[in-house]
Amino acid sequence: MGLSVGIDLGTSNSTAAVYRRGKVESIPIEGKKVLPSVVSYKDNGQILVGHSAKARLYIDPQNTVSSSKRFIGDSNKQYHIHNKALTPVDIAQEILKKIKTEASKYLGEEVKDAVITIPAYFTDEQREATKKAGELAGFNVLRLLSEPTAAAIAYGLDKERNQTIMVYDLGGGTFDVSILKVEGNSFEVEAVDGDSLLGGDDFDEKIMNYLLSNVSNGASANQMSPGSLSMQRLKEAAEEAKKELSESDFTDISIPDIFGTHIDEEVDVETFNKMIQPLLERTINKINEVLEEADLTKRDISRVILVGGSTRMRAVQEAVTQNIKKPYIADNVDEIVAQGAAIMAANLSAPSIDTAPVPIEVKDVTAHSLGIGFLSENDEYRVVHLIKRNTVLPCTGAEMGFTRYPNQKNVRMAVYRTNDTIPLDEHLLGELVLSVTPKEEPVSVVALFELDNSGVLTFSSAELSPDSALFREYSQTEVINLRALKEMIENKELKIKQATIDTNKQEA
Ligand code: ADP
Ligand code: MG
Prior knowledge:
about 500 residues, alpha+beta, Substrate Binding Domain Of DNAk, Chain A, domain 1, 3 domains, 12 helices
């Protein structure tokens, strides 16, 4: 059996790692530690991935794609490149193919097996799409692993056990905060939250706006348009300055010949920290939300781990120290997720216990609540949750309902994925229509959700006779006896109608 790798398929950058000879090591790609998640399609048909593609963001923005992870799993998203419609899965596939080739070259053997990481709050569609991209790239995807779990695994191996860990991951375009319980070799995600529209890019933008406010007179509307060459140059200079300010107390930004002038500004770290204060506050608010969600206070957190390139900013580290506690900062914040994935991959593919690292057990939680649209007594249509977010997978949930009208023949149950109770079409996953015996009096209907490890939902529903024990028990307690219900289904005592909710819409 060959080596297996761990891959962090990031919004801005991707990295890969391997566990071999009892150690985890990062795999360089084209000699560099991180591969920009950028793909560029040249006129001659050549496809560039990584640094060379990123350089083409300037000269060929039409045919160069960055940050496509933001849209993975979105069936409507298309990139129109050289008269071809490409999907985010196509882009991810190119990045993964590049990693596969480079990793195989570096390791001296063909790499097939991989664990690919995903943000903890990715939806089923996003998970499916990521897995598909991996398979299209020629990988055998051993499993998808949530990024915070991967980080905790990489960190937890040589650290003390039995702790509650908070992972603060601030990358290029996204912010994730997660709370994990680590007990022995078992990693359990307790709560996840995040902001998919907050990351290093927003910090760059603060500097860009600062510089622009000083030159706006000279710039034409065209030059200021988001995709323009000048704006790209400004963005690159801003990002460089930001990185410099992680090391030094001030930085010089000079961009010749831009917006009809020259930019030559010194920015000190205090000015920068003031600009980014609102962004830092947003991350701290999220932390407090997630603590509340997990029913914890900051005193319950044994460790905070910082992950992601943006946690190199000193102001981020200080904000976490002030509001939670002094974080653990690995010197390889960019590589830690891929390294955890590599450890997991070695575990899953190890032929024997001798060659495997410490065995690891990973429990994931649902990132989103799942429910059914119900008409309430006062005719309000609302989502009733059968499975609440942050429940450990696999999990089940059930609910009982009644027909509304005399002689009703069908009950239509719409499935929503939302943490809210307002049913919106964009959160509709599918529906199940159950035929029931038309009766004068209300007929009771039971619905069961079973969510497996990979997030696939099996929805079972049946009419329930008023003299069934299950119904009598429910009438008294308003709680469904899940065990009894599952037994009845197994023993075929109910006329069950079942649906597997198609959570993989982009494959249509
Ligand atoms: P992702 O996981 O979203 O792909 P990364 O973890 O690679 O992203 O983080 C990329 C972000 O980190 C970029 O916005 C980049 O500017 C930022 N970054 C990288 N190095 C530094 C640094 N030294 N100081 C501040 N920000 C940095
Ligand atoms: Mg990341």
